[in-house]
């Protein structure tokens, strides 16, 4: 059986090397992509473009018609002209896998960029992977500790849940992700930095994530100056690496910053190949790509991927198309509030505006009761804030407001947490129970 499996593969490789190779030519290079004629290539295949003996540029087939294939670059197109030879590789993008990836930093194609030499991987797998069958997914019935007090208690996340972190720019999304990377009880962290500023990558790795967080993480980076296809592929490479660990039975946390930049990359690709602009300039493929990407996370027959996706809301508008589409697919959302951020409240989580759709399935009745009491007290204060600001509130009118005013400091202390502070789930629930007892309010 072994000889049967191995021998034909060797013969195929030899025949492919000895046989004639079909070479296409670039017929046009316009905008973000180029058109190649004379190639027998499929969508998703990688094609190398460049003259014999000269530098080669990898491109990927993203569309095809009777005139040829439309390709998007995975590198720079400098020097490419009409008539430049193009050769198919006959394969899609391959992604490295295995525990040898721990602590490594990869680019959007899964290649190491941390200067630590070659990867000690278990091999490479195609970037595409079937989405888990809806009827084969295991139920989400266990909590995932994130190490952030407000998230573990008021918006409890389950293993295999997909959550969105919605915020404008500069509100603390990356810092919150780094806290989760260090404080979660997941076996593996896979972090995708898509469209990040180049200056911030080392700062995130060295200051926010640190050696402790990086030791059990795999980081995939594609900066904002790279081609749109590289940015898009970084999201799928990170997801494929997470899937490989899930298939081995591990519980993985996949963090992606940001989903909005993934959508922006797909918009550039779609418009470049001739798709019509639809909602706010996003072509229809953008929303199908987002759905396909997000549905690949979650539970499967074994293992789980808990997905945390930041969504950079345009102009702090939480109803813009990408935010609205992501919220409809995800299993909950955490809202980061700029008003809290500017006052030094960190993490700047708007607990009342955040929702976990599986919290009731992964918490006990006592835990849910405690969380509900605190939410009611916070909501009561929010509703009476105008009266409190002008001094028109009369004490005794509402016991919930009285409790919120009397214990404001304790509530704020519970909701806030330092960057270097780690809070395990058990201590967070104990702190919430102690706070609720002090409030003297029953559900």
Automatic annotation (TrEMBL):
Which InterPro entries does this one have? AAA+_ATPase, ATPase_a/bsu_AS, ATPase_alpha/beta_chains, ATPase_F1/V1/A1_a/bsu_nucl-bd, ATPase_T3SS_FliI/YscN, P-loop_NTPase, T3SS_ATPase_C
What does the UniProt keyword field contain?
A: ATP synthesis, ATP-binding, Cell membrane, CF(1), Cytoplasm, Membrane, Nucleotide-binding, Protein transport, Translocase, Transport
Q: Where in the cell does this protein reside?
A: Cytoplasm
Coiled-coil region: none
What Gene Ontology terms describe what this protein does at the molecular function level?
ATP binding; ATP hydrolysis activity; protein-exporting ATPase activity; proton-transporting ATP synthase activity, rotational mechanism
Q: Name one GO cellular component term.
A: proton-transporting ATP synthase complex
Q: Which SMART domains does the protein's record reference?
A: AAA (SM00382)
Q: Please provide the Gene Ontology terms (biological process) for this protein.
A: protein secretion by the type III secretion system
- Which reaction is this enzyme known to catalyze? ATP + H2O + cellular proteinSide 1 = ADP + phosphate + cellular proteinSide 2
Major localisation: cytoplasm
Tell me where in this chain the AAA+ ATPase domain is found: 159-340
UniProt-listed PANTHER family: ATP SYNTHASE, SPI-1 TYPE 3 SECRETION SYSTEM ATPASE
Its recorded name reads FliI/YscN family ATPase
Question: Source species, please?
Answer: Curtobacterium citreum
